[in-house]
Structures are given as structure tokens and as C-alpha cells.
Amino acid sequence: MAGHDGGSQHQFTGIAKYFNSYTLTGRRNCVLATYASLVAIALFFKLKPKKKPAVTEK
Amino acid sequence: MMLNYFDQFASPIFLGVPLIALALTLPWLLFPTPSTRWLSNRLTSTQGMFISTFTQQLLLPVNKGGHKWALILISLMIFLVSLNMLGLMPYTFTPTTQLSMNLGLATPLWLATVIMGLHNQPTHALSHLLPEGTPTFLIPILIIIETISLIIRPLALGVRLTANLTAGHLLIQLIATAALVLLPLMPTVAFFTMILLFFLTLLEIAVAMIQAYVFVLLLSLYLQENI
Hints:
Chain A: Pfam families: ATP_synth_reg (PF14960). Chain A: InterPro entries: ATPMK. The complex is a heterodimer. By secondary structure, chain A is mostly helical. Helices cover about 40% and strands about 0% of the residues of chain A. Chain A has a domain at about 15-45. Chain A contains 1 helix and no strands. Chain B is mostly helical. Chain B has one domain (about 15-35, about 40-225). The radius of gyration of chain B is 22 Å and the shape is globular. The chains are: A mainly alpha, B mainly alpha.
């Protein structure tokens, strides 16, 4: 299997420069972004205000 | 008291004393220690040759920084091989059939490799969770899968050793019981069952050594990734 990719043969522009699956830093950033997204989703559902049922006059 | 086939795996306690401690320390007494003389005897020299050859082979793919793990990996290998082999003798207890013990060996060592990787080279360690050249739409799901496979490693290490040894011991006991029961009823079938038992015992000797080797080899691979 090939060793680490120094990224010299890939010329990325834009967001692909930081998030790609070829360079070491690109892969690291993808991993961190995925973890951050999962934590954000978990926090969103945890902190979401629960809907209280409407109080009706009896 | 009704005996079942799983009683052989119960941790032995005699007069309140847990004998597992004896089972764990006894193999140490079986290996000769080098003397203070300039030249060792043939047994010690042979032992030393095997250990040094095995160490070289095991640590060949590992970087120089990982060579400090040589002592712990080799002693773990000798420990597991001796426990597994001694457990194949009749009426002995095999400590490596205890999942708690195997997880206790696997989890700290695996965790040490992960912590070392994250501490010394965090970019490299994190980039291992995404294979090179993954298509963009597969990136998140593959990262989750690789994370799960990373976390499941110590469980796999422990359960692999436990399951292999437990299954082997159970099979030996079952086939031996079958041979014993069949002997007065159908001696010819009992004879073939005994031949099967002989080959199974040979297989279990191989499995005992191979499983210990696989345990240590996988740990060295995890170390190689993180050092």
C-alpha cells in the first residue's frame, strides 16, 4: 500500500484545500469536522426546548 | 452437585484462597533465568536465541520509538504462550479463558497506543480514521465506521483469545466424554473418536501458540500505527 501522501501531486483550491481525503491535514480536518458535527447534533437535541402541552381551562 | 461442561472455566478457589494467582505466577518458575556466569548453559542459550529472534521479527516494522515496547510485548507473549500451553494439560485451569483477564490485558495496552498516538503525532493519528482517497460522499460514514472499529479493538482482542481457548477446551472435553461413553458400547467408533481427539489436541496446541502470537502481533500493529 502507498505510504503517506505529502499532497504534492494534488493541487486543491477553495474548501478542498482544507477538507479532502488525500492529504494528512485534509483527512485530519475531515475527522475533526465529523466529530464536531456529531457533537453539535447531540447538543442540539439535548438542549432543544421540549414542547409543553397547552393548558386548557376546566 | 451436578457438573456441567463449563465448570472447568470457573476460577478455582481452595479453602478461600483464589488459586488463579498461583496459575498466573507458576509459569514464571518454568523458565530458566540466565546465571551470572559468562557462558550460559544450552537451555538458557536456546531460550535467549528464541526470544531475541522473535523480538527482532516482531519489532521489524515498528519505528525506533516503539522499540521500548519490546520488553512488555515479549514478556506478554511468553506469558500467554505458557498459560495457554499449560492449560491443555488435564485438570489444569487456563486463566486466559477468563474474559476479565484478557480484557484487562488488552484494554490498557490498546489505550496506551492510542494515547501515545494522539499525544505525539495527533494529525497522523486522526488521519488514520479516514482512508486515503475516500470519495467525498462516503467521508462522514467512513469516519464513524473507522471510529467504531478503533473502539472495538480491545474488545476484539480479549474476546478472540477467550473464545478460541474456551471453545477448544470445550471441544476436547466433549469429544473425550464421547470417546469414554462409546468405549463399552461401540469400541470401533470410540477408537475413531480417540483419533479425532488426538488431532484436535494437536490443533489446540497450535491454536494456543497462534492466539498468543496474534494477540501480541495486533498490539504491535496498533503500536506501529501510532508511533
